[in-house]
């Protein structure tokens, strides 16, 4: 694993998403990483609480997520994405995701914020 791509202690937000997605600029992901295992707590927008868990190996992540919405609905899904280091040292994730709890999927982009 490239240590420069560690997500540990980083905060990412959604900067792009398809219409079927629920993550946006007000959704903040707080990451922790131990070796190739990653997990994050996230919330914001219509998402009251979410958890993501998976692996980061050789610049690729493979994660599953579960979230609770403000209206009480729950949702689960799976995604794979390319994790890259931007020129300014921030992390970017280009993600392909699919719902597992309902039909649909798409692509999104997360980027690190201070």
Describe the structure.
By secondary structure, this protein is mostly beta strands. The chain has one domain: Avidin-like (Lipocalin, Beta Barrel), CATH 2.40.128.30. The protein has strands spanning 11-17, 28-34, 37-44, 47-57, 60-69, 74-85, 91-99, 105-113. An eight-stranded antiparallel barrel has the order 1-2-3-4-5-6-7-8. A hairpin with a 2-residue loop joins β3 and β4. It is globular. The mean pLDDT is 93.
Give the key terms.
Lipocalin, eight-stranded antiparallel barrel, 114 residues, mainly beta, globular, 0% helix
In total, the number of strands is: 8
How much is the average pLDDT? 93
**Estimated radius of gyration:** 13 Å
Taken in chain order, the helices and strands follow as EEEEEEEE
Q: Helical region count?
A: 0
Low-confidence stretches: none
Helix content: under 10%
Question: In the CATH hierarchy, what is the class?
Answer: Mainly Beta
- The largest sheet has its strands arranged as 1-2-3-4-5-6-7-8
> At CATH's second level, what is the architecture?
Beta Barrel
CATH topology: Lipocalin
Question: In the residues, how many domains can be counted?
Answer: 1
Euclidean distance between termini CA atoms: 24 Å
**What characterizes the major β-sheet?**
8 strands, antiparallel, barrel
Shape, per Cα inertia axes: globular
- CATH H-level superfamily: Avidin-like
Share in β-strands? over 45%
Structural class: mainly beta
């Amino acid at each position: 694993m490239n240590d420069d791509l560690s997500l540990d202690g980083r905060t990412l937000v959604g900067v792009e998403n398809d219409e079927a997605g629920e993550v946006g600029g007000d959704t903040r992901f707080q990451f922790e990483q131990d070796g190739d295992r990653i997990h994050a707590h996230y919330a914001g927008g219509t998402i009251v609480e979410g958890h993501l868990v998976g692996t980061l190996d050789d610049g690729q992540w493979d994660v599953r997520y579960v979230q609770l919405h403000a209206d009480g609905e729950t949702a689960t899904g799976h995604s794979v994405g390319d994790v890259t280091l931007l020129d300014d040292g921030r992390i970017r994730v280009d993600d392909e995701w699919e719902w597992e709890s309902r039909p649909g999927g798409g692509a999104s982009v997360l980027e690190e914020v201070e």
